[in-house]
């Protein structure tokens, strides 16, 4: 009996210490990945977090394709709806639906969804910085700058969201846990107000410039200029025209920061002059896979052997291409009609007046941002310029005209831009309305394919609608009509039943898929409501 | 490190206890028992009967002559128990004389098998009679002599309710096992395997090492390292009462494998050897050179811009040159298979006997496709030492290494095509190799004739099979030690420590002679994982009979930890192919080699309990309870509890029954209910994580980290609640029937739920939705003819099962499209839809070929092209009724799951001959034969002969296939029609073995105890309407989505092996 007790005691003794291990045994400790628990510890972590927020424009990540946002689709959404470019695709293609104000363009269009997802994913990256940086032990000055950068980036996402959709839900806190509870849309006024708040705070925190290895981070000038643009853009949605004079003041601050026009227009977009004093803010690209641009595939000419999968998805509209002044350097700076292939062969093409060019050939394609020597998509050199001084000047002219009419100062800004383009000064003595329209025409020529087209339309709806309606009028089959892209299969902005353009295009519809997972969302006027029934209201 | 402490303590314990017990060894006088065991009816000697002295560990096994001998039996009154599978056991009382031998002959009475056996129930064994849950044992006799390479192959057709699907018939290829249906959409649905008490989660996809440089490959079989020849018995736990003792891992069923242990007295040596050949069981009937060119011409002339790819002169010159390559012939071969197994088992006869079982084996198989094969070396040792009658130590160690050479198969259609896909597609008009020694290449070589033929960039199949080096290695060390002590009468304590170490690697090299290698000047990949797992189990078992009460209680505590490390590297731009993957650094890839690594760790801590109580030998109650704490579960749900209960009533033991059911030997009614879990969450999935992303400032790259997944602090296991009603009947002394009905409902499915996009995340893993599985199972074991005067006997074992599964809830959405079937086509292949079975096929409904214009005129809707349906077109149904075929007309078009699965094993014996066959099959279910997308359409690849011969034409209006030029299988570019779905029903003679036991008189002069010679045919025939190699296929996945899809699956092998077994 004694022996048995001994055995029992010993077996128990063997097992018990194992049972006594605490809960620690079951706690997961991340090993091969970074988790919030082991990140945001020091200055390097905080900087890495804000770097990722910058990358949200070209690398949305998290299941969102790099084409979904600024890598391509935002550009299609922002540029197709103008009279400047067309998609070369047939009316059956979802890209043409954007281009044509097509009846097939519905709230189910995948590009709207992609932009919505990518912008909010980017906003969450910025929110993470804003939420986590305050607790990181680091230099307080740099910390304030980091938070300023994040606020600028957050405002930039909201600027596009508000410009496309009007008032949107305001996510201002980092998402840390799962919730199916959606936020309702803020009003347009609240949304623009939030953008202004972020930009005002960012401008206060950010330096006017960064040293070399930090070049490309947001600056005070970037925050102030985006603030001015937001103030101007908000008016068409909120009706608060007091913002014009605020914009005049903000723009004056930007002009005081020392930016100048670069004598070489084309160099601003080809990667050779990326730190020009004209550039206020650009998306930084280098020829490193994943850290570079990805426009070339979509921009380069069709079937020219330049690129493995050539797309030429942005094709100059014939009438717009022909509308440049003969001496305007911006025509050649914007459009490509010849190039030298890597194997040395010269390729060139042209439009013969009155002749429709067969599909296998090509008309002018976009020159801006393409990298003929890049190894592949996602590794292209040219930075994508979002904010530059020529826009500051034209915006100044536009805002001053709204507040005080076409003053000499306003004329001066336009003429600075025209002089750099090597064309004559603007006709003096224009009325306020005529001056406004002239500034918009100037913006089209100066800023074509830089992501302003649609937003300009919405700021001056009557002008742009008339211009689009005119170009959308069916010009017949045959030759010589206006607005003809060179491809027989491409569509014109004259899709049956689409003339005149409907008022609903003043805002894009909220994507149905976003409403499916947030029953608080409401739909914009004129668009199918679908799942966007909008909960409470 | 705490387990190390525990380990040390166990050793200290052993050191202390051993001397204490020495005193207990009995020292009195001993005698011997010898005798013969025979069949009472046939008067034939019975081999393999176990004779034990009750209350001791003494025992022996009868030889071929039925003789046995037990030495060292304590003198005096003893009880001797004689048992053999298929016979009723007998217990005889004897008095053993001191110092001399007692002769005890036993005559056993044949009885249906299932009643008498002992089954493993998890943390213990139970007599079949006392089991209240649903547990099957596998009838392995049909497969013992068949060339099966892994233990999961043994399960096919041998047990009701177990569906085995072949992901790849390649040697070492994975099988997918479903016990009572599929209860998880996204998680692992493979059962838990428990090998000698060590639980091994069979996570086929998770344990795969790399992909060999291809987008999608069928994973290797992680169970291939376990040698089926070492198996003593297999128990399959199916209902919740049985599986709940494995708690959070029990939902997919549990397969308990017990390996051969030492027994008997004198050492018994066994040599087992077989050798054979295998060939492909079936091939596709494709066009020869002349027919192909005719087809191409006809096709091209039917197109909107008619042309003639092979004008007469070209045709003549090709035929004159004699080129007519049968590409399947070029990659298939006759492959040898060899197996040698040597073992010795026995026990010492001392009062404290040592029982031992040692075995070593080599299995070597060349696949029936060039370049594929498997070789396994394995060794195993089981050792038990009894110290007196109350203490026992033991351990086992298994070491094995499986090396396989993989041929790219199961692949996709273009550059990623495997050798099988490519061989079906390659056109017969060019040779394997061109005159300059390079491999022909369809893209270039077919374009030479006509660019309009637009051939795909599919690599040459022979170049894939011959040139690609794709080696996989799986080395496993599974070991276990235990100490067991009977503390008081009926109270036994057991402590065990186990370790499972698996080292896997896959090295792949594509030389320049392959398409992939030529594109990058060689392509080398080295991927490896090392998994280490340790386990500590501590159990206390108390068994006691008090009068009419029979009670057995188990309590236990276990801990397990598993670490996994993985590395992956690849490189390109090699100066030459000489060093292949051995010198991966020699590549000069721009930016250097691609390198990645990973590490995961998971822990499990559990308390378990079980009580079995039998009243009056007829009212049986079983209750189990397990609580599992798992690191994989989220912070708020670390612990889960899994209870179960079962009752059974042995009606036949009622005193009144004898007068009612004379012909019924045993009648038992069973019912059980319980809850089990499926912990398919991978480690760390409940946590938030950040991912890195690149951006640049000032022209230099910088890293960034962003929140890429939001954590779910509530993430937990999938819960399956199961009820089971069963009946066991033995009647007429020769039939034994087991029937079960069950209903399982699995809730808290792991699904990616969609989040409001404004959160910045699209989805997160959460527990939502529910799936139901219901079904019945029937197993019948019959001793139809007993060895009578002529010695002829016939035993049959049949099983059939039906399972229906249905998605009840998807946590919101009505349906979820599963993964794309292939990246080539972006075919949205399968669908999860509420109210439907899991993973139904999703495509257009085709209604056959439109025979004539009268029929065409009745079709009011327009086809996808927007024109109108013409005679000879494939008629596509307008499901949504909008008068035009659009993507919205895709619908659920078929179910991959069979209505029934069944298996029948028949064993006939006559004198020394025995004929055993396993027929196995399924009824119903669909297979999607994606191979036909290519082979029934355009001549850019070769075309099946049937498609050419039975094409619609005005003179052949009731054709099976549409007019040449029309594609019967696709609508638009990315969608398939129900035409590709085929009935997966089949009946297969899986094995047929004829064996002959060499009569003893012929062996008298040798030292050989028994000798048996046999010949086995494998897959001798398959009856099926399936047009591909084998309807038992799931080449894209072992998961719940994309089942039943055949894309270049490795074909089934048919073979014959000859073997012999010697014991002495």
Description:
The complex is a heterodimer of chains A (about 525) and B (about 1050). Chain A has about 525 residues and is mainly alpha-helical. Chain A contains 18 helices and eight strands. Chain A has a two-stranded antiparallel sheet. Chain A has a two-stranded antiparallel sheet with strand order 2-8. In chain A, a hairpin with a 5-residue loop joins strand 5 (about 340) and strand 6 (about 345-350). The termini of chain A are far apart. Chain B is mainly beta and about 1050 residues long. In chain B, about 10% of the residues lie in helices and about 45% in strands. Chain B is built from 14 helices and 55 strands. In chain B, helix 6 runs antiparallel to helix 8 (about 460-465). The longest helix of chain B has 21 residues, at about 1-20. The radius of gyration of chain B is 31 Å and the shape is globular. The two termini of chain B are about 45 Å apart. The model of chain B is unreliable at about 1-25 (pLDDT under 50). The interface between A and B is large, with 90 and 83 residues.
Task: Give start-end ranges of low-pLDDT stretches of chain B.
Answer: 1-26
Assembly of the depicted chains: heterodimer
What is the strand tally of chain B?
55
Rg of chain B, Cα atoms, Å: 31 Å
- Distance from N terminus to C terminus of chain A (CA atoms, Å) equals 81 Å
Shape of chain A: globular
Radius of gyration of chain A: 27 Å
Question: Any low-confidence stretches of chain A, pLDDT <50, length ≥5?
Answer: 355-361, 474-489
The 3D shape of chain B can be described as: globular
Helix and strand content put the structural class of chain B at: mainly beta
Structural class by secondary-structure content of chain A:
mainly alpha
Helix content of chain A: 40-55%
Indicate the percent of residues in helices of chain B.
under 10%
Q: Give the helices and strands of chain A as they follow along the chain.
A: HHHEHHHHHHEHEHHEEEEEHHHHHH
